[in-house]
Amino acid sequence: MIGYGRNECGLTDEAVSELKRALAVSTQSDNSGSTHNFYHYPARFSPDIARAVLSLFSKPDDWILDPFMGGGTTIIEALSSGRRVVGVDLNSLALFVTQVRTTPLSPADEDAVRAWSRRCLNLVEAELMTASPIKNLPLAMTTFLDSALQLASSLRFPRQRAFARCAVLRLGQWALDGREFPFPRRRTLSERLLEIVEQNLIGLREFVVACKEASTRKADVSKRRVLLYRNAVGLEKDPLLQKLTKRPNLVFTSPPYASVHVLYHRWQYRGRKETPAPYWIANIPDGFYSSHYTGGSRTPTGRERYFQMIHTAFTSIRQIISPIGTVVQLIGFSDVETQLPIYLRTMRAAGFAEILPPSGIRLTRTVPNRKWYTRVKQSVPSSSEYLLLHRPN
User: When you count CB atoms within 10 A of the terminal residue's CB, does the N or C end of the chain come out lower?
Assistant: First the structure.
């Protein structure tokens, strides 16, 4: 078996039609439903694309690999469709968010986090202690968020505390994204936190129901995922991956984009002021520059390092994936004419052959509401993404 969506020559016409439909829908998608709105991870892609790719190139109980998992869209959709999944990312924030998004809660857990969010209403009138400053985060906002996090520390179980921190993470992101006010008052923050907690609980229940419909019991959801905080380079030597019962039949991922600056590790406040607040809220390590998360800077040397990273990462992936597996990537470029050919040569050097539609024209989509910076300010090719498909040589 080669795969549901392709044959020896390339993609089937049916697969192309389904992928085009998913790409078209994704340009209008708000990524809502299930646990996708727990946190707006930068450069995330649409669940519609993930569902189409999973359906076409894998079957239930297959292992799926996402070596650049980001906010976990592939992980959520793979588990929801009865697959087993490995997610890898060198960003500790990606690991934190993905774990919370795919960790079911019991009714008692739900009651506990609801009670915590209601206690946060008391912060409206309380005399709050001044928190330690967080760079480029308003002190009043820092103080409120810190007080909410202190209340969350009394929650009994780690999964409850992580869920609460993720809700505060979304609250802080929402507050900095606000356009109707320079900074929300405490009452607005506390009421919005209540809404976020309830929305997230509903989303998590939807996720559990989807898993159940795919024949995965709630108690088994976490057992069907392997989440790794590490670089994709050298994955073939990871002891956890060496224990997999079968090789991944599908790699579906969205790697960093060549020479496109995306803030995976910072929020922005009032323009370009960057704050490390997400890591403080999630209580996880940070300390790296943006080039660490994007594979290289936007300098000529950085671009060389980026393609070297892609080569070494996919050389490792080539040793993990099934010989009859498929690699599907959603990726953009700041200079398509120059960088796409280099990228394709890099994939060939790593041991993969491209799969093209019968027309020979690669599939693309326009990225809706994407926030990033490239070296030029006018409309740029990075506002489009390519859906690249490869098979092992």
Answer: N
pLDDT score recorded for residue 178: 63
- Report which of 188, 183, 196, 191 is spatially closest to residue 269, judged by C-alpha positions: 183
Report H helices in 214-352.
239-242, 277-282, 290-294, 300-318, 336-349
User: What does the buried/exposed string (b/e) look like for 362-393 if buried means 16 or more CB atoms within 10 Å of the residue's CB?
Assistant: ebbbebeebebebeeeeebbbeebbbbbbbbe
Orientation angle between helical segments 139-152 and 107-119, nearest 10 degrees: 140
Planar angle of CA 189, 144, 149, nearest 5 degrees: 105
Question: Containing domain of residue 351, as a range?
Answer: 13-102+224-270+289-392
Which amino acid is located at 355 in the chain? I
* Residue 328: closest CA among 298, 352, 294, 299: 352
175 burial via Cβ count (<10 Å: 0-12, 13-18, 19+): buried
Whole-number pLDDT of residue 381: 54
And the tokens for 103?
Answer: 């960790």
Distances in whole angstroms, Cα of residue 352 to Cα of each of 36, 317, 327: 31, 10, 9
293: domain CATH number is 3.40.50.150
* Closest C-alpha among 131, 129, 101, 100 to residue 280: 131
Contact between 97 and 41 under an 8 Å Cβ cutoff? The reply is yes
Q: What is the mean pLDDT of each run of 10 residues along the chain (393 residues)?
A: 60 92 78 85 89 96 97 97 98 97 98 98 90 90 95 98 98 79 83 97 97 97 97 96 94 93 84 88 90 89 95 98 97 93 98 95 79 44 83 96
Backbone angles phi, psi at 340, to 5 degrees: -60, -45
Q: Work out whether strand 84-89 and strand 225-229 pair parallel, antiparallel, or are unpaired.
A: parallel
Residue 113: its pLDDT value, please?
98
Note whether 246 and 336 are same-domain residues: yes
The DSSP result for 114-130, as a single string, is HHHHHHGGGGGTS-PPP
Cβ neighbour number for residue 17 with a 10 Å cutoff? 12
Whether 44 is covered by a domain: the verdict is yes
Is residue 251 within 8 Å of 111, Cβ to Cβ? Answer: no
